[in-house]
Design brief:
112 residues, mainly alpha, 4 helices
């Protein structure tokens, strides 16, 4: 990430919170059946789409390379949610870790 995710740190903090909450919902849903997991994955996609929408704004001061990486991660997250099969435990762990790592990066950038 770069200094200052967006003009207002509150936006970065809110997105970090949303990503971490989505990670928790995915983790909790993994043992509740395919329908619950699919709903958590769909909610995760919504969070990622909101994030990509924010970084696409003119007032977002993220470097282009970081924007491109976040957009690729959004595509990966979306692909995992819509591929029509239940992700493996390893795949679920990957999605959770992506959310948590990006959330951490957003919180760090909001403090700069």
């Amino acid at each position: 990430m770069t200094d200052n995710f967006v003009q207002e740190p509150d936006v970065a903090t809110e997105q970090a919170y949303q990503l971490s909450q989505a990670a928790i919902r995915i983790d909790q849903a993994r043992g509740m059946g395919a329908e619950s997991l699919a709903a958590a994955l769909a909610e995760n996609v919504e969070v990622w789409i909101a994030l990509v929408t924010i970084i696409s704004r003119d007032d977002c001061r993220v470097e282009q390379g970081a924007k491109d990486n976040l957009k690729k991660l959004c595509k990966y997250v979306t692909d995992q949610a819509i591929k029509g099969e239940t992700p493996t435990d390893s795949g679920i762990d990957t999605l959770i870790n992506i959310n948590l790592q990006i959330s951490e990066g957003l919180l760090i950038s909001a403090q700069i």
